[in-house]
Amino acid sequence: MTGIVPASAPCAMARAGFDKYLVIGSNSFTGASMVSYLLDQGADVVGISRSDEPHPAFLPYRWKKADRFRFRKLDLNHDLDAIMQLVTAERFPCIINFAAQSMVGESWANPDHWFMTNVVSTVRLHERLRTCDFLERYVHVTTPEVYGNATGTLTEDAVFDPSTPYAVSRAAGDMSLRSYFRAYGFPVLFTRAANVYGPGQRLYRIVPRTILFIKLGRKLQLHGGGTSERSFIHAADVADATRRIACNGKLGDSYHISTDRIVTIRALVEMICAMMGARFEDQVEIVGERLGKDAAYKLDSSKLRSELGWSDQITLEQGIEQTIAWINRWFEELKSQPFDYAHKP
Questions:
Q1: Which class would CATH give 20-196+232-257?
Q2: Disulfide engineering: 266 pairs with which of 26, 66, 136, 226, CB 3.0-4.6 Å?
Q3: Number of alpha helices (DSSP H) and beta strands (DSSP E) in the chain
């Protein structure tokens, strides 16, 4: 991969999918959901993450036959040589990278940990990958947090204005990849999704946490009264969009993945309470807002819809119903799982 390429380099022809993928960060919620989706599409998938696979309740691909999936425990910060040995041995045509330190508020406590994973180790990976002539597509799964506390609807060319160490670290990684695309023709595509949710999500996230706390009769802390606005999108819709982008997106381009529906966090919690027959006032405790919390992200996903024919298929109500059903199915096991985020450097 050498030489300068145009600002938008489309696929030579529409592609249904690759036969084989490497998913970095396969233990993450979106990573595991992506693995499950790709297996359903008939692909072979190798997943790598720095920790052992979590409880099967958090791995959608373990809820069915997964004989075309292989897992390797490898840490981007410490095992780059082993990762590259795997990459060169398998000659993956497509890599999708979900790996990141991704908690926003917690990034203030140890910002250097976020920069090590999201910038330093990520750039080291890209520097090694850029000489792999078999790599056709590299999907960098990033975040709308890079835009900061923006107003109005955001298109993919919105200016970066990050508000937290997490967001700054992701913006730095994104900008590094932009330079690699321009300088080397590195075959990158960027995705930025709205708030992803669905069955299998870790319990410290707002949707499963609310459902679980209602079932347990525990009070949910609602930061800042839940006034911040977000779009919530089902993991299956995100996986479908990501595959379309991986296969047929324009190299070097960014794509927003979002529904058009915006809700406040309070309205989301009220909806879940109503669906579960609980009183909002009995379930919620209002607490102070988190440091650097952005008020709203309103992503314009018209580019993804018009160029790649994508549309979201699962309504928020349907997705919440699915998540309630998932928690009901695994309730006894989930009660013994961590309810709060535990940071790992």
A1: alpha beta
A2: 226
A3: 12, 13
